[in-house]
Design brief:
This protein has 335 residues and is α/β, with parallel strands linked by helices. It is 35% helix and 17% strand.
């Protein structure tokens, strides 16, 4: 058997590579969405797939997100494995009727007779100077719905492996792609069909002084902060949550037990977010591991501003450093 050569791929190219691999492997995989066929998607994630697999397996839809989700749910119950693209996460709200009321409940509603092997892909997050409704980070909304998996990759390798697993999964997956890092860097990967496990966190860096927990585009910023902390002699353990629902709390708790300090970083608004859920679970199950209060570095409880003020909204490397240093400096008051 010929060994596949490694390829240098960006994150968005890894999406394309995973889709094409799975479509060659499994004829039941189909792709639908606005402009995914002829144009290859607004970010060119599906470029070339229509030419390779034909219009019956890669097809453009009207500009109607509710229709895209409804068709995809129906397909998924009848033997197909649809991968539906929503052009931007800010356009995803009209799909909620089908996702929350049908896709997420299908297995339960039919007592296991039907399942819903459906992937909803959407570019999410800010950082590209987009107009209104193009920069949302509302992953917590989907994580709150029983029956859904919510996956957010942070590198080309993890994008490739996690998307393969999402397509192969028998239940619906919301797959959110951080568009700020679509083309930020390239990574060597092999198109060998090897998937990565869902429902687990990835420990990207070992450390003994503080745990930094994050996902999506903020992983890159968090790793940069960890590099600067290391120059100060501080070992930061960096955890990429990757699958925010179901949450791999065991990996997080093991890290917090080791370090005693924890900072959670996310781009989404602060209140009622995934960071708050992680914080609550640490408090419930690992309170006595902590040497300092759990801290969060987040966006604000406002809509993402227009590009002129976008950088003021999004957490920066310096914000992460400042919060980490405050957490490390915390001294428990005397009884």
């Amino acid at each position: 058997m010929t060994k596949m050569p490694p390829l240098q791929k960006t994150l968005v190219e890894a999406v394309n590579l995973a889709l094409s691999h799975e479509m060659r492997r499994d004829e039941s995989v189909v792709i639908l969405g606005e402009d995914v066929g002829i144009n290859g998607g607004v970010f060119r994630a599906t470029e070339g797939l229509r030419e390779e697999f034909g219009v019956r397996r890669v097809f453009d839809t009207p500009l109607a997100e509710a229709l895209i989700a409804g068709i995809a749910v129906g397909m998924s119950t009848q033997g197909l494995k649809p991968v539906a693209e929503i052009q931007f996460m800010g356009f995803i709200f009209s799909t909620l009727e089908h996702i929350a009321c049908h896709a997420s409940r299908m297995r339960n509603r039919t007592r296991g007779r039907l399942h819903c092997p459906l992937v909803i892909r959407a570019p999410y997050g800010g950082g590209i100077h987009a107009p209104e409704h193009h920069s949302e980070s509302t992953e917590a909304m989907f994580a709150h719905i029983p029956g859904l998996r919510v996956v957010i990759p942070s590198s080309p390798k993890r994008t490739y492996g996690l998307l393969l697993s999402a397509i192969r999964n028998p239940d619906p997956v919301i797959f959110l792609e951080p568009k700020r890092i679509y083309r930020a860097s390239k990574q060597e990967l092999i198109d060998d069909g090897e998937s990565l496990p869902l429902d687990v966190c990835f420990t990207l860096r070992e450390g003994s002084d503080i745990t930094l927990i994050t996902w999506g585009a903020m992983v890159n910023d968090t790793l940069k902060a960890a590099d600067q902390l290391l120059q100060l002699g501080i070992g930061a353990e960096v955890i990429d949550v990757a699958t925010i629902k179901p949450l791999d709390i065991e990996t997080i708790l093991c890290s917090v037990e080791k370090t005693g300090r924890c900072v959670i970083i996310h781009e989404a608004a602060r209140s009622f977010g995934v960071g708050a859920e992680i914080s609550a679970q640490i408090a419930e199950r690992g309170l006595f591991y902590l040497k300092a209060p759990i801290a969060r570095v987040t966006g604000y409880d406002t809509p993402m501003p227009y590009y002129k003020n976008e950088s003021h909204y999004m957490p920066s490397v310096q914000d992460i450093l400042d919060c980490a240093e405050q957490t490390l400096d915390f001294v428990r008051p005397a009884a």
